[in-house]
């Protein structure tokens, strides 16, 4: 048998796939299951976006290679950042991605050599650790603790790691922690990157799911951020087009060039009708984002209230589409997830996001309020 590359030994099998298999067995056995494991939006995109996509796919000239982003898409992203976040960027500072995970994984290949370090949060989205493995680079994880609002302390990173680090990944609103960073924290991150010549990569995929009155905070609110940072964003969670796979990276063209050069050897761009629909959404469907945010805030409130009223005092998330819930001390993350599944609810064990996630489960708010109320009651039964 031909053996796979050694780097594959460092990639764990997806816990999401394992949970999906267990869920499938339960469903086939006739059990009613509420799946709150994966952050895939259950709501549709705006009708106008679907209409444009439907119209454009009928045009015979739309099926060639896109090769790269259209000028309309770049301009739409720049306008969206100005109007939505109050951040000025130029169109040539936009690189289209096939979803933000595309950018996060391929940035490591574009920048890291064996022996280099990538610094990533723990717990963190699995691609942060996987990208180091794919690039044959070293991973150093910085722990996130609830008592510190899930903000890593840069000054606790060993000097020998800092010297060899070339990239550091941050993520706010956080997945899985649902934490938010303030401007002062981003100022520290940018200063750290500039001082040590480390590329700061901010995963901003949940930008539009912030439940306070404050505007979502891009790292580019910090004046010097463009000197050292790239921000990845996506339309998946904001406009509910996760399966269409379209996102973008923002940064100085010189920082984006290695990733652009790599992608020209890997893919041929995003399907043109999807680009057109995405550009329209960014330009004309911003009111949709307010409605979407209100839906998820209401879901959060209904679900959290149901848990709190029954004695499980989980932390109230400030943003994102997840509840990061500490499990009772008698359970591990996995054992609680399996117990929840027995009660008809699929959640993700926190250990899937790194050692720092042990003791928690991630619960995605991707069902209507009525289903979330039922799920909360079932989870309470699992806790008892």
TrEMBL record:
<dbReference type="GO" id="GO:0008483">
    <property type="term" value="F:transaminase activity"/>
</dbReference>
<dbReference type="Pfam" id="PF00155">
    <property type="entry name" value="Aminotran_1_2"/>
</dbReference>
<dbReference type="InterPro" id="IPR004839">
    <property type="entry name" value="Aminotransferase_I/II_large"/>
</dbReference>
<protein>
    <recommendedName>
        <fullName>Aminotransferase</fullName>
        <ecNumber>2.6.1.-</ecNumber>
    </recommendedName>
</protein>
<keyword id="KW-0808">Transferase</keyword>
<keyword id="KW-0032">Aminotransferase</keyword>
<dbReference type="InterPro" id="IPR015421">
    <property type="entry name" value="PyrdxlP-dep_Trfase_major"/>
</dbReference>
<dbReference type="InterPro" id="IPR004838">
    <property type="entry name" value="NHTrfase_class1_PyrdxlP-BS"/>
</dbReference>
<dbReference type="InterPro" id="IPR015424">
    <property type="entry name" value="PyrdxlP-dep_Trfase"/>
</dbReference>
<comment type="similarity">
    <text>Belongs to the class-I pyridoxal-phosphate-dependent aminotransferase family.</text>
</comment>
<dbReference type="InterPro" id="IPR050881">
    <property type="entry name" value="LL-DAP_aminotransferase"/>
</dbReference>
<dbReference type="InterPro" id="IPR015422">
    <property type="entry name" value="PyrdxlP-dep_Trfase_small"/>
</dbReference>
<feature type="domain" description="Aminotransferase class I/classII large">
    <location>
        <begin position="32"/>
        <end position="379"/>
    </location>
</feature>
<dbReference type="GO" id="GO:0030170">
    <property type="term" value="F:pyridoxal phosphate binding"/>
</dbReference>
